[in-house]
## 1
Amino acid sequence: MNIPKTIAAMLALTFLLACSPSDNGNQTGVATDPLPSWNNGDAKQSILDFVARVTDPASPDFVAEAERIATFDNDGTLWAEQPLYFQFLFTIDRVKELAPEHPEWKTQQPFKAVLDGDQEALAAAGVPGLLELAMATHAGMTTEEFERIVSEWLDTARHPTTGRPFTEMVYQPMLELLDYLRANGFKTFIVSGGGIEFMRPWTESVYGIPPEQVVGSSIKTVFEVRDGEPVLVRLPEMNFIDDKEGKPVGINSHIGRRPIAAFGNSDGDFQMLEWTTAGDGARLGVLVHHTDGDREWAYDRESHIGRLARGLDEADARGWIVVSMKDDWRRIFPWN
Amino acid sequence: MNIPKTIAAMLALTFLLACSPSDNGNQTGVATDPLPSWNNGDAKQSILDFVARVTDPASPDFVAEAERIATFDNDGTLWAEQPLYFQFLFTIDRVKELAPEHPEWKTQQPFKAVLDGDQEALAAAGVPGLLELAMATHAGMTTEEFERIVSEWLDTARHPTTGRPFTEMVYQPMLELLDYLRANGFKTFIVSGGGIEFMRPWTESVYGIPPEQVVGSSIKTVFEVRDGEPVLVRLPEMNFIDDKEGKPVGINSHIGRRPIAAFGNSDGDFQMLEWTTAGDGARLGVLVHHTDGDREWAYDRESHIGRLARGLDEADARGWIVVSMKDDWRRIFPWN
């Protein structure tokens, strides 16, 4: 046997395979990077490896396309959440807009605190106060009216520090990740503590995620016929809180199967990652860690918004990937 | 102008167009009938016309693919519901199976009625009795345990009069309709009064409808970690009843947009059709009317199961299509 010739043949074959258009994303023989805004490093490589394993029919970890469910938290995972959850900024704007119809709000907490810009009084109102503000601004109209209110707000409102529309406060690396997963047969869902009907009007155009793949917190709605016209009316009563232990419940209710990949950024996502990664076979749990005080915001254990402590403590032992925005992301916002 | 020649040219062109493979489902010049188990008639033609109008980009009624949402009731619309809802037959079998662990059921209603086969006592127990039976048999286990119980029952249980597995008690014309709509870019959903987790284990293999496109009634579930293993536990408490006024609410909660087509068979589907067909643009509302006492069952206004009265009274005025199983369906079950 002529060994050098065999090796030469193998090298030629390897070269041919490497240059085969079917093995690459383009015709030049160099694969296109599906995640160009991610720095090359462990986090990116772990994601690429996971997708390769579950999509390769020859892999022991292969997962049928129908089972390739990936769930994403929204606030702090797909778009920013500082200086306050954007839905809370929407609530504040709505209180100001509705104030002329509610003269009593001038003296009634927590509305007075919002109108006076009194942070201390607002904080003192606590969760019951926030809930009261939410119900006063999110209920009492039809679902279609609420959708129009949200869309109009997003068209005109601007982020308080960047001056950008809120729908531009999304993370470019995550947009690429959503596209990359879908190109590999994944069905992508949002599973957020935010209001389901606050998100649905814009997730399709911004994230490519249609309304039926959005899971979130909700208030009760009822069906009514008004002047012969059927409508759904939003009631000032919580229906479901899609946070912490609620996330696996919301996933089960809306999706009906366990995801194989879950992406979050706070301890509100802990149970979603726990539920996802406890399943059989290859699983991916990812936490986005807000480490970049220059390009975004830096916060974790002590933050009132997007607190991340238990997730950081247990990620290693659970095999979850912690993505450092500062180190792993070349670009943060699409306009950077 | 030579008129006969022009007409001849037009005829030739028409013939060419009619024979173009791109205009037909096969290569022989004869279009394949997408609904072979439907007799040619008004009902079939109305469905074909609707699909043609909403999928033709040149039509004023064109609907973008993402908006082509079609919702289907299950019991009596996709599969049979006589002599009793199949989920109730499951409940009866479960009571009998669990009875050895519950000696108290021998003397306690409504369980005693089930164990004695006492229809009168069962009827006397009413809705509270049925709910008690449902909770005793559908709760107290994890979601995965319940899925296994349902799957095992479907593997072994047989329909009391036909002797067929329940998953064969499905309507062949509706299977064809589901395929036809999906081939035309529709996303098909089940919206049923039946239990969401009773349907999800089998809708994908039987109807081609994945779990995330199944909407139904539900009981409450909670997330727990048992011996380090996260589980979802089913509680004996109703969460949502997806029937009548509940159907538009369930659609809004799960799908987040109004369907353009809805299919039902009873007054429990009235509001779903009302909500669907009140939207702008082309809309399709269809009621399956159980008119075939020989091949299936004949019932409507006076039936305790699948009662259809208001729907029959108002279908014409609302432009809904009433499908007569006897006249419009060439075949009813796949095994006919």
Note: Chain B has a mean pLDDT of 92.
## 2
Amino acid sequence: MAWQENVRTVTPYTAGEQPKRRDIIKLNTNECPYPPAPGVSKALAELSADDFRLYPDPDCTALVSCLADYYGLPCEQVFVGVGSDDVLALAFLTFFNSKKPILFPDITYSFYDVWAELYRIPYQKIPLDGNFQMVKEDYLVKNGGIIFPNPNAPTGVFEDLDVVEFIVGKNSGSVVIVDEAYIDFGGTSALSLASKYDNLLIVQTFSKSRAMAGMRIGYAMGNQKLIKYLSDAKFATNSYTMNRTALSLGAAAVLDDDYFKKTTAKIINTRAWFEKELDRLGFIYPKSDGNFIFVTHPRLSGAELFTALSERGIYVRHWNKPRICEYLRITIGTDEEMRALTAFLDAYV
Amino acid sequence: MAWQENVRTVTPYTAGEQPKRRDIIKLNTNECPYPPAPGVSKALAELSADDFRLYPDPDCTALVSCLADYYGLPCEQVFVGVGSDDVLALAFLTFFNSKKPILFPDITYSFYDVWAELYRIPYQKIPLDGNFQMVKEDYLVKNGGIIFPNPNAPTGVFEDLDVVEFIVGKNSGSVVIVDEAYIDFGGTSALSLASKYDNLLIVQTFSKSRAMAGMRIGYAMGNQKLIKYLSDAKFATNSYTMNRTALSLGAAAVLDDDYFKKTTAKIINTRAWFEKELDRLGFIYPKSDGNFIFVTHPRLSGAELFTALSERGIYVRHWNKPRICEYLRITIGTDEEMRALTAFLDAYV
């Protein structure tokens, strides 16, 4: 027998391109167009390399306590990881451990089925309706867990909290994970439901609204039991996931709430301006509460427009998948970037 | 049914204590007593927080190419992760995917059985002999994979490469992982065997000899097929594991080879001095090729000595486990720290 027979082979997730050149307009991975809070630069300047010889705090207290204070939770209700992908992957492994399928929308973050395949978790995709909205009654089937992003990606569609509460409340036998990577751009977090439902796990990230994709920080919030299970699984995988820089700089980012509110408001304003331009140009899109818009045009091919934009040095995201192959997901950049994009679209349309 | 029934419950690994106070002599988690290379400080000063808004390079090219150059390998033979624990956990998930048990020594890194339990991998512990050495013929039983540290932890015992080659060569149907966290303190890496055996994976870390425990950087080396499988599994878990600071500072640490050789030589010298002191005091220990020594004393209780040291602010490691409960693992610190420890032992003995 060859060792290859024992290998767990997987089809990896395909992330958006991360080109090394800087002379492009990068609207393909929903990064923040503005730098992190000024406090992050200050915290960076205060780091001493000499401290790096020692392990970081395995409990991540500096960062966890900042987040706990910010959200008004005890530390025991907050868990941090290496980006929300790390938190979500661990949550899949920990909570989706049933023979019944887990449920998620057919159009959603394309890492969900990759994690399910990796950990051999059966899954069932629940179709969104024609407006890319969840049909809450479809989540009443037997399941081993439920996950969905809210706002959804790549559509940007936000589901009202009564939809979330319906799904969480009717599935008390399953953990329901609400992936709120884009919650700070207009939606309302389901965190307020966490005290009522002990099966609800909220996952958020520093990669979008906190402008820290490069630092890899994500977090989960929920009742103490959920967080304890997640923490046990972390301590059974890697005791020290967050390095010293992530702990310090992450905490600094949370502390500067004014800056956070200003940049998210700026992005929401730019999105509103861009929506009007899209309307004028005849694009169609679901109302977005994310830092991106999911657009299509009745007379244009999604794939062709994607290629034309790439050639012009404007990177957006396109998926060659059923139902969404005519759509492009466009990150909201700076006003200047969005004007350049709009000028190109003007000429192209 | 309650959601708790779907939870994967685990008994986590217990890491050495990470006390927040600094007024102790910390010889309990095998950190380097010297700071990282001067180039790391320089690289830290050159970081700009503004760059952190963008995702890091998912392929970790800056760091991987430095390591590849250093070891004379193509980049396709190097994989990096968030500490060697991250790399090892992923390797367990990827390569130990058989119904046959994996094999590892009975006295070894105590994370191995935790990962096996987490991923539901059957395992069998192979007893070390009376001198804490591996009995290579015991590794000829049917297995789904083999892992051992070399030098071993917590014993410090290094197995000659012919033992490693015997085990790797006779088990061509399994992946054999040699965990070389402590290889730079006197042992010889099995990397030279990697071109001959495609089932050999070498794992190393920046946490010990490179004085970067706080940055969480580990790596694996092996043939391209092994590295590709590992990389696929990473891209099925978390596309961006290494943050921007780890990529830059890790690369800087590898580039300063002079400093690396000087600090490892210093630790080896201190170990030699400490061995003589241990001899004088009547302690017994296997010859160590790590940055720690595993000591016992014919007339002293390991648990009592551990407590006495803790009370005096000297932290070492003790396990309440069969065969090793009378031993303490003592990290090699600075000369000054080892003199303080020796003075205490002098009085205690």
Note: DSSP finds ten helices and eleven strands in chain B.
## 3
Amino acid sequence: MERVKPRTLTGFMELLPNEQIEFEKFIAVLRDNYIKYGFYPLDTPVLESAQVLLAKGGGETEKQIYRFKKGDTDLAMRFDLTVPLAKYVALNYNELNFPFKRYQIGKVYRGERAQKGRYREFYQADIDIIGDGELSIIHDAEIPAIISDIFTGLGIHDFKIRMNNRKLLSGFFELLGFSDKAEDILRSIDKLEKIGADKVTAELAEYGVSPEDAGKILDFVATEGSIEEKLAAAEKYAQKSALYDKGLAELKEVVKYADAFGVSRENYTLDFSIARGLDYYTGTVYETQITSHPEFGSVCSGGRYDNLAGFYTDRDLPGVGISIGATRLFTVLKENGFFDFEKTSPIDALIIPMTENIGYCINIMNKLRNAGVKVQTYFEDKKLKKKMTYANRINVPYAVIIGDNEIAENKLALKNLETGEQIICTAEEAAKIINA
Amino acid sequence: MERVKPRTLTGFMELLPNEQIEFEKFIAVLRDNYIKYGFYPLDTPVLESAQVLLAKGGGETEKQIYRFKKGDTDLAMRFDLTVPLAKYVALNYNELNFPFKRYQIGKVYRGERAQKGRYREFYQADIDIIGDGELSIIHDAEIPAIISDIFTGLGIHDFKIRMNNRKLLSGFFELLGFSDKAEDILRSIDKLEKIGADKVTAELAEYGVSPEDAGKILDFVATEGSIEEKLAAAEKYAQKSALYDKGLAELKEVVKYADAFGVSRENYTLDFSIARGLDYYTGTVYETQITSHPEFGSVCSGGRYDNLAGFYTDRDLPGVGISIGATRLFTVLKENGFFDFEKTSPIDALIIPMTENIGYCINIMNKLRNAGVKVQTYFEDKKLKKKMTYANRINVPYAVIIGDNEIAENKLALKNLETGEQIICTAEEAAKIINA
């Protein structure tokens, strides 16, 4: 038979079994929190009509898209979960109840050049709350509560949610007289961390921003202190731009209610430098850093937008949402030793028959399973040493060893594989110990 | 702005929110049972190298595949979960422990002609147990136990697992002297239900099978009675073909241990007519019918095979597995009124503020969430009637109504939206009632 060398494409995550168990647990934390907060699940196709998926068109994204024809149909694989949501809401508007809260955890596709940390297939885990014509600002304050619960649930406690408001930023440029240059300035500010203040000042000069005004902008976005101190600093520019004042009022509301939601001040702050791209977000914006690992960048980002589905419908659909790049976050956590794969097992106990009486072993397995124990039996006809090697290699915490002596007593030998301790007991007793 | 009409491609399931909740529950039953039986999760890419994915090549499947180039790379979307498993096991052989038990629940793609009940993107939910060189027959007997637990878990009790053994069938043709025609005969027998006994006899005649022998074959595959009666009928042909005898011995083992696993005789039987295709299965084969809906066909099928990954490796990797076409099964259940979408809600309770004191409402929501209640608040500034309409449309069982009177007492009004009954109580009391 002619053989093909098995391989998995570069940029496509494929985990080993133990890693996959931890990934499933990781995803479950996200999903369970989204459900707890009342989000509907959603599952849209991976493949869509290219015309529909690329309605917005243009830009860098389009080059990366997996797009192809099957017969006459021009198809594309989804590159995010936002465009499919927009399509879904526009398509099913009459069936939905607003505010419509949905989560979606699914794979998206970007044919990027392969490089470390870049995936061509990766999971995104998104939530969005969509209003019909309007959407209360209080939803914006619930978002950091959800982020907090998720990171705490993952066992990550040193995270910081940084929030800003796009109206505040744009309003600030407006009150300096640069309302027509707001996008250019934002694009420069977005690069601040990467290229530094001097280069940003030079770039701003190209747009006609004087060094003095550039200084004001850089000072503003670098405002430090407690949340109250930052709000007080922002107050100094009030009543010069309606947009700025609206942004500041929104930010105050978000802070007030985030506190009400119980989000710890340890875990959130304001950061006037955050813009999150150019043309989508219009109000609150979020980034989330893991404090001990700033090199991860933002691991959970999002914001408020005015119009989800303008390319599909003339209805006004404002929303607020966040996205977690789940594949990327899992990978950086894994690379930093966050998971202990040596303790990961698919089961709680492995039954090792030392008898011909397999029926008895199955009977014990049935009892353990009914008591909620994840258990399997090593049915292969091998020497004890080989069976124990298997038990050790799958990291199972308990072996249930059954020989004819145990059968005669209607019992089993329960061996704790970490301590080596072994006791003789009934299936019911074993289930209690294993579940404890 | 130029608008694109939103649409979803034909053959791609996209559910309404309530339907999606039920689909998630449905998938959770499958997943939880697979986990209970000790299977590792696995998640392989949707996109693979076409050369790798189509190593086996040929046939009807290849025409249906979504295959395209991105740059120089020849890509294909997976059309089942078996080929990716074969690739995975061959690729990671040294990292795996055998028997290797894995489940995978994921979307697969087939560009079939669109017709009712045919999907181009659909979920399969597979389990396989892979041995290294050999695999105990007892695993074959555990499969019906898993199927039973799944259907019982779904609330479907009138299902019947029908089992056969391919060696028994091929051996039967051999002992009649047709070992060189076994495949042709099998292909005809496979069509028995569709075309009837007369046409099968006519087809068999073309292969040189006399009407008398055709009668024997048709009688054999139609063997009726209890499991013991069928095994006794099969015993009559013993000791004429080693292959037949091996098949019969395996089938007896599977029956013996299926009984030990506690699979009810109500839910499984033998059926000597089942072949499950031609060139893959080599031992036990399974089909599962829902008795009250024979028109669904087999909703869970699979079997024992000798060699999982012959196209990728020279290692002998026998296995046994089953596949549930989850999208199809969910759809036929849905169409037959199996789910009550009118009672499906993303939350247990909706908080309806009748006060300006939103902070109090959020505080109540925090308490309910901490007590495990899935709850959200209707934050929009609308009339009570509109808020109650929202509550009714999302089918939430309880409304938590909070006005200034309730706040003064540090309480809330809990309204059962099914009975209309309303009581005043604390958050703790409400959590108890809602969780009950």
Note: The CA atoms of residues 62 and 301 of chain B lie 22 Å apart.
## 4
Amino acid sequence: MRNLLLYLQYDGTYYHGWQIQPEDVTVQQTVEAAIFKIFKEEISVAGCSRTDAGVHAKKYALSFFTDCKIPADRVAVALNTALPCDIRALVCVEVCENFHARFDTVSKTYQYIINNGNFDVFMRNYCWSVKNKLDIQKMKDAAKFFIGKHDFKSFMTGDKDSTVRTVFLLDIVQNGDFINIFISADGFLYNMVRIITGTLKRVGEGKLDADKIPEIIKARDRRLAGETAPPQGLYLYDVKYENY
Amino acid sequence: MRNLLLYLQYDGTYYHGWQIQPEDVTVQQTVEAAIFKIFKEEISVAGCSRTDAGVHAKKYALSFFTDCKIPADRVAVALNTALPCDIRALVCVEVCENFHARFDTVSKTYQYIINNGNFDVFMRNYCWSVKNKLDIQKMKDAAKFFIGKHDFKSFMTGDKDSTVRTVFLLDIVQNGDFINIFISADGFLYNMVRIITGTLKRVGEGKLDADKIPEIIKARDRRLAGETAPPQGLYLYDVKYENY
């Protein structure tokens, strides 16, 4: 039995998220079908994250055990012959037997893209089109309050026992009409990036003071944060492991 | 009766081109349906170009006559409420009664996007992914032979009486892994941009000498030119009229 770590890129527009569901087509199911076709094995893969419907991945990691002898460096090319063109296998490496793509993540980075210019038909599935002119400096002022170890209960959907996470980086990078938000953390709560993005948007619109962010974090109350930004602007951008 | 000139942007991925067809969904039909919904008139619009299935438009022009009283500067906003999100009305102006969006074009500009880096799932419907490393300088050397008034019979699909066109500009602009080809002319033959692109690609691959282009033009023989580049990399980029 070998344990393989595989990196993917996918356009999530036409999938109901990563995780297998009984009725809908998901990325996990599509990848497992391609593995079955190439490896002739029914394999259940472990993904690094459960991305939602419409969310994309520029670098997604998964791991799985196999008896198949295909050399690791040829797995990506082989799988791409069986994957649809909105999912691409990037690289595959053999890892130690106790490696797990979800539990062993050291950090993950998400990118969120806001289009603050005119609506662009070519980007309609790949960004959030925001009409109100956003003040980037205010957004940057607000962003710094999220960095560090905090209880992010105000910035999640649903409930969970442990809501403390460490944000390593929250960068806001302007590129013409597009505003890119990059956020790295040791882990993310459900909808955390999308709610932080919605909150930063409110700050950028001048409807919320950047200085209010510490209070909102402290309150542990979802109602005080901004709206949940839509899924199509969100990309899993990077996943880091200790040894790979 | 007023004559209106309307500019559009559309993602051609899911349309069978511009022109109305009996069986398939086209951009023209979709726009006319939106006009019917807003203007309550059955109007046949005149488009500036017959783009093929999968071809996009960053700026497309059409004109039509109407009895409707909606002010021209409110037409785009009104139509966007009835158009699907892969077609956007940009601007509408009232024009003189003998204006025609197709016959009055002074020049049109097309953009062709080649991805010369790794396959990118997000760009799969928006560029031609070319693996062989292309030599941009050779492509630029070849490009200059196309500029001017020439018989472009070698660079068209099908046949036509008059195959002389004037190319005003053929620019090749690199942007990271992406190679953008911009070509302006007084008119284009069927598949002309895609065949010129396929020919430039051959030159970039080192399979055809840039200096051979004048001979290929002179031969008026389609078989001597390069392959027809696929539709998804092609964009109608601009349309110019004398007075608008």
Note: Chain B has five helices and ten strands.
